[in-house]
Amino acid sequence: MEKKVILIKDTGFKSDTTRDIQSLFLKAIRDIGAEESIQIVRAADLGIYNQGVVVKILPDNTVYTHINSDNIDQIVKAVHKGEVLENLLLKDRVEQTRIVLRNCGVIDPENIEEYFSKGGYTSIAKCLFDLTPAKVIKEMKKSGLRGRGGAGFPTWMKWSFAANSFGDEKYVICNADEGDPGAYMDRSVLEGDPHSVIEGMTIAGYAIGAKHGYFYIRAEYPLAIERVENALKQAYERGLLGKNILGSDFSFDLEIRLGAGAFVCGEETALIASIEGKRGTPNPRPPYPTDSGLWKKPSIINNVETLANISAIFQKGGDWFSSIGTEKSKGTKVFAVTGKVKNSGLVEIAMGTSIKDIVYNIGGGVLNEKQLVAVQTGGPSGGVIPKKHLDTPVSYEHLQELGSIMGSGGMIVMDEDDCMVDISKFYLKFCVDESCGKCAPCRIGGYQMLSILNKISEGEGELEDMDKLHRISQAMQKASLCALGQTAPNPVISTLRYFEDEYKQHIIDKKCRAGKCSKLIQYTINPDKCKRCRLCVTNCPVSAITGDREHGYTIDQEKCIRCGRCFEVCKFEAIARV
Amino acid sequence: MVKAKINGITVNVPEGTTILEAAEKVQIKIPTLCKHPDLPPTASCGICIVKLVGSNKMLRACCTPIEENMDIITHDPEIVEVRRTVIELILSKHPNECLTCGRNGNCELQKLAEEFGIRTSAFQQFLPDIPPDTSTGTIVLEPRKCISCGRCVTVCQQNQNVWALCFMDRGFGTRISPAGDGVSLSESPCVKCGQCSAHCPTGAIFENDDTAKVWKALQDKDTYCAVQIAPAVRVAIGEAFGYKPGANLTKKIYAALRRMGFNAVFDTNFGADVTIVEEASEFVQRFTETPEKLPLITSCCPSWVDFMEKFHPDMKENFSSCKSPHAIVGVLAKTFFAKKRRIDPANMFVLSVMPCTSKKYEITRSDEMYSSGYQDVDVSITTRELARMIKQAGININDISEEEPDHVLGEYSGAATIFGVTGGVMEAALRTAYDYITGGKLKNVEFENVRGIEGVKEGAIPVNGFTVKVAVAHGLSNVEYVLNKVKEAKRAGKELPYHFIEVMACPGGCIGGGGQPYGITDEIRKKRGEGLYDEDHNCKLRYSHENPFVKKLYEEFLDKPLSEQSHHLLHTTYVKRPEYQK
Amino acid sequence: MKKMTRDDLEKCAQNTCQSTQYIKVGMSTCGIAAGAQDVFDIFAKEVKTRDINVNVCKTGCIGMCHAEPVVEVAVEGLPAVMYGGVTKEVALRILEEHVCGKRFVNDHIFDLPVRR
User: Fold this and answer.
1) Which A residues, 8 through 27, put their C-beta within 8 Å of a C-beta on chain C?
2) Fewest CB atoms within 10 Å of the CB: A48, A208, A293, B439?
3) Class of A112-320 in CATH
């Protein structure tokens, strides 16, 4: 008989009673003499939050919440007898839906046999032997899959443009130039399940009539490159790539091209230029890559996450895929949830899940029980979603309505210690650094906006600067050549939209609520609270704190660099930040 | 054909027409800073944006092909506002030095700023601190004034296939630069053709101004100042004075130069006639005696010579060793003419007025450029520089009466004047070579096959039962096609595809030279070319070797074509040069 | 190597090639950065020296960055669980208590992000 395990965890905020409850459980188990068949274990995390004491029973996966000492005997007996206590059961649990990450953390990415055991490469077999290329595209249409790189263009449409485009050669390109700060789902997929992407590319190749494909991977992903190289080798050895795949008429070759990590090379036309060995700058569209792409041949460029969905679609069918998600956004989306969240990491949810559920139920809530202020999505091309809109379901349309975008899947949780001017500066600085410099609106506009934001954060801002920010934003959005420039002002526009007061506070009151803008804050020592421990004195990197035990200590504002070290180390809250 | 609407006006244009071009057809001008009619769109400035009715997005008119039923708005308050902001942004990274800038008055950015009525600097100025690159002595690169439109890079890489210029760094720090870190223009593969300067919308690339040297020589009483004007100058300089392109101002320029103080006014066309006599003789010699040295390739274009020395040094035996016309006039002025007039060549100053930036380089490119015992041509200035000098001298070119050139280096044939347009050297040489070989005259002296603005032109002329095959290429990117054909045939031991090849580095030939007035388009090239062909057509003399002064030159001074004396004075040599001199 | 056919693939899909007793270490960039390589090495070494019948293998990122390094452990008679924050010391405890002693280790179990 398999052993039963009771995992327990106190999910309350204030105190942790797990150990006490554990002893009560131990006693109850001993009372019925089930020490050998039931074990009670303290868990580190059960993925359930704010539900009091929670137990999870393995292997049944039954979860009971809000347990108190009265329930314990009852639970132990039920476990022992194999019964379920309906009244304690957790209902409506928010769970992840894993399609893209289905094999990540499950199989050994370096062993193709394990991918086979998950039905790997049966999808390409099905396509090659049971479906015509047109039917493959039809199935993709049925699935409703949209590009996961950011813009959300229907994948089947891209494929069908390329399929209908005339060319003696066509190309499939996997865009693995993931560059959004804080986003790393593509890396994880390539490292955790490289064969699924290879299979997706091969199916795409079959659908559009391409014989050749490229992985465009940034050189900063050495492990991903190594695992893809290894996977390609294994697939070639077994006839899953190369000439006459699985004995069919279809031949497909794949190779890797390394990118130097320029953010703009994630843009299709710049990516193509980079593969061709040219300066990675965008080119005007049309012509679209599906008509004239790599080496002027019809080409499709799909993101890693998009491609990882494909073999799953053909294993389970387009209808199955389209049953997940919202009306216009089908399937799942992987987010890299980071920032002030307890459980940072990769989360794959069905489209339509609310941001709140992602942050609080999957992410475990805000770190240190602070107040959530906003959630940023879409990285440097996205925007902030303030607390009041947290119930918004995740979909391409909903996020756009709020002035943000789905983007490639970065999701950064911000709390009361985050300054919105500072956040805008951070993202804009990223785009200014990463602008290729080709077109004037992006090249100069971004730089000008950043200099205005710097001025504001240093207390030198004027009210008319906000108009200037709007004006330059408009010019960048309308007149930039590629999406990098068109979307670079988004973080600024969206913070201006939702946190205008915070900007005004910087400009008029010369104050930064979060204490992030160092020119606008001052640290002082409150002599009433100061215990003269000298901890701040020894920690100050610039020796700005002087005094003696008798007379107390003061901070020399001329010398102080506002690093906040004294504020952090003081054990008596004697340092004030104003 | 595609039917669409622009500002409510219906347009019918061929498929592939851009919105910008279609708008021009219905008299709507969409402003742009980066699009040049000669070049594919770089889509970099972001000023030509337009809207589609019902759409929020804006499109770039320069590179978006018009589609069936498009309903386009080119001007509305929002579009104008965005354009204005972009112009202001560009101005925030451009020095306010209009008054002291070489492009003052004909700068495209200045013009746009004026049209948009920009009166204040909305944004803080951030100017890069990059020193000018004057290393070539021909073209000056001033990256501070660059607006990164990319025209120079496109023309250098795509049209000229030289790849001397590129963008360096990225983002706000993007700058034009010689290709290679820390490489100056003179150390780069640059062939000094100056097409970059002719296409720059601002003052970021311009000819090295040598006018001060000319004024200084003119002021010195002890210096005997001689000047010559190239064929292409006469039909282009008028544009700087309000004339239509192609207007032939030869005799007004002679008069203006005399008023400026030149003691002798010559014409490079005389030198062109001499070049033809020598080059045609060279061709006849190779054709009849040493066919292994064919094809003969023309060498009057110094950028082409520089290109060959850098990229195709294996072809140097095929180059005509004859100097270019202005170098011939230079050396003859300080020898033949000086002797006749009893002037000490040490006190002579010879100025060449050229459509070309590269001639500034050519006058010192090898020892043979000093064969008179002195520097044969002291200074070479461009058409643009001469136009400024005429204005500085207060000369009203419109009303000045026409004058004749000075002999013995002034008379010329129609064959010489067409040197200034692509195919002209070939045509002129064939006229003379035909006569030399057959002893008879051509029925029709005008070779339509080698005329026109097509990149590569081919022709065949029956000569004494043998077919002479010729090719004409202009714009250096068209050279590879011709040379590859020759190289392939030689490798395979097959019959040569061409016996005689003319190459001019600049599209259109010298009329489209890098030193010509700004605003070059194919339309203007055609007009300037027509100006020269008209002059040829109306000339009594159509053959270089029939120029009486050329005959006189040989009788009195050089003996005969390819003589020892002419070899000494009129010919040069070529060497292999590294692409990068660093 | 022999080229595969569709039948071969379908046969492979029936097989569960993973053994019933395994220790799977999350070894993507995130895991390795958090120390997964050391954890993998210690498992591999100890399993060998102690001659324990358990397969030590690597896998990709399961997405639980906050809990890295993570290790999934399955031994016969016990449900498979995921341990997080696995240091060398915790790894040894897992081997001794869980794999050999068939008793789960306190305070390191994390819920799997998705039900399998």
Assistant:
1) none
2) B439
3) alpha beta
Q: Tell me which residue in B47, B83, B92 faces A444 most closely, judged by beta carbons.
A: B92
Give the separation between CA A500 and CA B264, rounded to whole angstroms.
75
- Nearest alpha carbon to residue B423 among B401, B453, B400, B396: B453
Q: Could you confirm whether domain A332-415 is CATH 3.40.50.720?
A: no
Interface-testing mutation among A202, A238, A324, A357, with chain C (most C C-beta atoms within 10 A): A238
Q: How far apart are CA C55 and CA C47, in angstroms?
A: 8
Axis-axis angle for helices A194-208, A304-316 (nearest 10): 80
Q: Which CATH class is domain A522-577?
A: alpha beta
3-state secondary structure of C80: coil
Give the CATH number of domain A420-509: 1.20.1440.230
Strands B49-52 vs A552-555: parallel, antiparallel or unpaired: unpaired
Cα distance between residue A307 and residue A200, in whole Å:
5
Tokens 């699985």 belong to residue: A246
Q: What is the set of domains in chain B, with CATH numbers?
A: 2-75 (3.10.20.740), 124-207 (3.30.70.20), 216-570 (3.40.950.10)
Using CB atoms, which chains have 3+ pairs under 8 A with A?
B, C
For residue B172, the chain A residues in CB contact (below 8 A) are 432, 435, 437, 443-444, 446-447
Query: Does C6 sit within 8 Å of A347, measured CB to CB?
Result: no
pLDDT digits (tens, 9 = 90+) for A328-367: 999 999 999 999 999 999 999 999 999 999 999 999 999 9
Structure confidence by residue, pLDDT tens digits, A118-156: 999 999 999 999 999 999 999 999 999 999 988 899 999
CB contact under 8 A, A440 and B86: yes
Q: How far does Cα A197 stand from its chain's mean position? A: 19
DSSP per residue, A481-526: SSHHHHHTTHHHHHHHHH-HHHHHIIIII---TTS--GGG--EEE-
Tell whether C7 is within 8 A of chain A (Cβ). no
* Chains A and C, touching by 3 or more CB pairs within 8 angstroms: yes
Identify whether the C-beta of residue B44 lies closer than 8 Å to the C-beta of residue A284. no
CATH superfamily of this structure's domain A4-88: Glutaredoxin (3.40.30.10)
What are the residue ranges spanned by the domains of chain A? 4-88, 112-320, 332-415, 420-509, 522-577
pLDDT score of C61: 92
Chains near C (3 or more Cβ pairs under 8 Å): A
Residue C18 has pLDDT above 70, yes or no: no
Closest-CA distance, C94 to chain A, in angstroms, reads 13
Of A7, A113, A191, the CB nearest to C17: A113
- Return d(Cα A436, Cα A433) in angstroms, integer: 8
- What is the rounded CA–CA span in Å between residue B426 and residue B554? 22
Spell out a b/e string for B320-335, using b for 16 or more CB atoms within 10 Å of the CB, else e.
bbbbbbbbbbbbbbbb
Beta bridge partners of A533: none
Is the peptide bond preceding residue A284 cis, with omega within 30 degrees of 0? no
Please tell me if residue C55 touches chain A, with a CB cutoff of 8 Å.
no
Confidence band for A298, pLDDT divided at 50, 70 and 90: very high
Q: How far is CA B276 from the centre of its chain?
A: 20
For chain C, domain boundaries: 21-110
Please indicate whether chains B and A are in contact, defined as at least 3 beta carbon pairs under 8 Å.
Answer: yes
Which one, of B374, B87, B426, lies nearest residue B223 by Cα? Answer: B374
Q: Does B115 participate in catalysis according to the annotation?
A: no
Residue A476, CA atoms < 13 Å, CB-side half-sphere: 33
The closest of B118, B20, B119 to B61, measured between CA atoms, is B20
Superfamily assignment of C21-110 in CATH? Glutaredoxin (3.40.30.10)
A451 and B126: CB-CB below 8 Å?
yes
